[in-house]
Amino acid sequence: MDNAIAYYGEIKCFVGRTTLYGKIKGQEPLFAPFTGNIDLGGYKLDESQKEPKSHIFPYMSAIINSLDSPITKNQLSKYHEEFESHGDPIADALMKDSDLNSSMGKIITAIESERSKSDTAVCSIIVPLPSEKKSIVLITNESQDNSRYGNCFEALLKLSASCCQIPSPAPQQPISGGQVSGPSGGGIRTPGGQELKAWTAEDLANEAQKRLATQPNIPAWSEEDLHKFAEERGSGIPEGMEVWKEEDLQELAEKRRRGGLNIPEWKPDQDMTECASCGYGLRPGWTKCPVCDTPVSPKEPSGEDQDEISEEEEDSDDPEQETDSNIENTDP
Questions:
Q1: Are 271 and 141 part of one and the same domain?
Q2: Cα–Cα distance measured from residue 168 to residue 189, given in angstroms and rounded to the nearest whole number
Q3: How many other CB atoms are found less than 10 A from the CB of residue 196?
Q4: Is the pLDDT reported for residue 3 higher than 70?
Q5: Same domain for 147 and 289?
Q6: Whose CA is closest to 165, among 106, 97, 99?
Q7: I need a surface site. Which of 15, 42, 108, 326 has the fewest CB within 10 A?
Q8: Residue-wise pLDDT tens digits, 19-55
Q9: Are residues 156 and 289 in the same domain?
């Protein structure tokens, strides 16, 4: 920043937060809050010095150099990307001042002067001094025109005046007894400046009663209902639940085994016999098993077949006896 100029001074009004002003390539200029410690490049301020902070040249030089710090630029970009350039009460108040923004828009940053290849440039900073209830206002201008001094001084005056018109933040109450107290308005202010309502135990109880009153159709169980439910759970079979018998389960398992199809169980043909060696089904007339070549033994007659055979033999024996008797009777 060898060719840049810087105007700064102390104002007798306390700005509650460090605030930046800068530009992002392709976007509108914006004010943004700065969180944390300023990157002073290793410089440490001696708080025991009694002279005004703005009169300590090494300190002011470190603040000017901090505007080029990646930490400073990243906070400006983060506020634009994550919070859409609004939400902080101080930055919002400064952005609403059209006269101030008109003067600040005349300031030339490192983007316009092409001193830096970065897409983000910070040209102004407001540093609060809590112990003195003051603030430091600083503006740099990298323009090479003859009007750069006038534009920079005009922007410094208007920014200082706007800082004195910013409403001071409400004092924070100390945290004690496990309770968090918000601002004087009965709410809690987020880091982005949003007011949140603080709920007490009584408020929560009243809100619960209101919600119950608006839902009259919610079922309620009596003591008898609870005992009934307990008995049903103890028996393991609640009322109305279908009970499966062992036969039903077996039938269901059989249907699932068949893939849900009602296919009758396979039974061997009565005319077919089984091989005594491998159990293969044998058709009538086969002399050996086609699988294991075991000779097929003749089929043993069953009990019914044996009865039929014995009856046939008896029938065949009677005609012979009749024939013998006839022969005897025919002899002279």
A1: no
A2: 13
A3: 10
A4: yes
A5: no
A6: 97
A7: 42
A8: 999 999 999 999 999 998 999 988 988 888 888 999 9
A9: no
**Domain finish residue from 143, 165, 187:** 165
The SS3 call for residue 63 is helix
Number of domains comprising the chain: 2
Q: How many CB atoms lie within 10 A of CB 139?
A: 26
Distances, alpha carbon 161 to alpha carbons 117, 124, 135, in Å: 33, 15, 12
The sign of the dihedral angle between the CA atoms of 25, 71, 20, 17 is: positive
The model's pLDDT over 241-259, given as tens digits with 9 standing for 90+, comes to: 777 788 888 888 887 776 7
Helix or strand or coil: residue 80? helix
205 part of a folded domain: no
Residue with tokens 């004195």, as numbered in its chain: 164
Query: pTM of the full predicted structure?
Result: 0.52
- pLDDT at position 173 is 45
Per the CB < 8 A criterion, the answer to whether 170 and 188 are in contact is no
What is the CB neighbour count within 10 angstroms for residue 103? Answer: 20
> CA 106 → CA 22, 103, 183, 269, 279, distances in Å?
12, 6, 38, 107, 105
- Residue numbers of the domain that contains 282: 265-299
> What 3-state class would DSSP assign to 218?
coil
